Amino acid sequence: MTKFKQIIGRGTRIDEDYGKLFFVIMDFKKATELFADRDFDGDPVQIYEPKPTDPIVPPEPGEDEVQVIDREIVRKAKPERYVVADTDVAIALIREQYYSKEGKLITESIKDYTRQTVRKQYTSLDAFLKKWNSIEQKQVIIQELQEQGVLLEALENEVGKEFDPFDLICHVVFDQPPLTRRERANNVRKRDYFNKYGEQVRAVLDALLEKYTDQGVEDIEKMDVLKVKPLSDMGTPLEILSLFGGKPKYLQTLAELKIRLYEAM
Fold first, then answer.
1. pTM of model > 0.85
2. Where are the domains of the chain?
3. How many Cα atoms sit within 13 Å of 158 on the Cβ side?
4. What are the DSSP calls for 232-249, one per residue?
């Protein structure tokens, strides 16, 4: 620990004459986990994890954040300002920390943690796909992932809220290109899957796809989805179920719809 502190201490020395304003740690032994020791240096003042297109030096507090998307520069607004007792204040930094299901502080990136956690149960993409496809209620496997310690909400914040748990896991753990919920729903529409049904059933299925796009697969698996707009405008739950020939056939059609949703990786 003493040697570690000495190394980091020398790295933090600034030498403006030589343009030395930052330093990089090449961590091959998870030594940076020692930063979680509050007795060492307290909580970090700032955590900055630049993407490949971001500047190495973090922005000054209050500066506009600049993000490069497809070579287009998008300038984000300055942090929201507040007034407390007639004094201007602003949020300079938000720090998020995550804990594993054992209550241990997660010191690696959320992606690395997810990869390690999921691979304990699913050693290959085929194993995960086999389990996903074998379970009709996707909420069951999503709940299992959460019970194993996978922090899906944190992963959404890191990768994107437009992806559902299936694509988050396939992308982060097994390096598969993800599809957004919108892309999956549109793929089902393009295959003319609805053509074999009547107009009213097609309208219900299209509304379910839109619900999937907005909320995810767990939402359309609940019978309560028939009680909310736009489905509630199509009739009562009993009337909607009767369009399919009853609840069993509705559930059978819904199961087939979910199969179609996850056909394409």
1. no
2. 1-44, 110-174, 181-261
3. 21
4. GGG--HHHHHHHHTSHHH
